[in-house]
Fold this protein.
Amino acid sequence: MQAVLSRDGFLQLVRFMIVGVASALIDLGSLFILVERAGVWYLFASVIAFCLSYGVSSVFQKIWTFRNTDRTTAHQQFALHLILQLCNLALNTGAMYVLVEQHHLWYLMARVVVDGAIAIESFFIGRWIFRHRSA
């Protein structure tokens, strides 16, 4: 397994961060529009925004970040990635509730904090999910 600190590992981390920023912009933008413009409750809007950003993230993480274009295991990889993201959605929603309702943090700031924490575990688990397997 290639080390994260190797040149390839570092470039993979940079690609992960670029996809993460794009996904976060979709996530935060959707969340803001749904709450501020459409009047949707922040937790429900949070779930919708998370789902929208998931579509972008999953495809680009597999193909671009982790350089995995193998289609033979794609259904298994996306199933595992979906399970990861559903767990992340539960963590995200619970943490959002705690930070907003109990700690009175602004919902967008709470989202940035939560997304940052989730991004760390997602990199390592996503790396495992989309790793290249030798035949």
The chain has a mean pLDDT of 88. The longest helix spans residues 7-37. The two ends are 16 Å apart (CA to CA). Residues 7-129 form one domain.
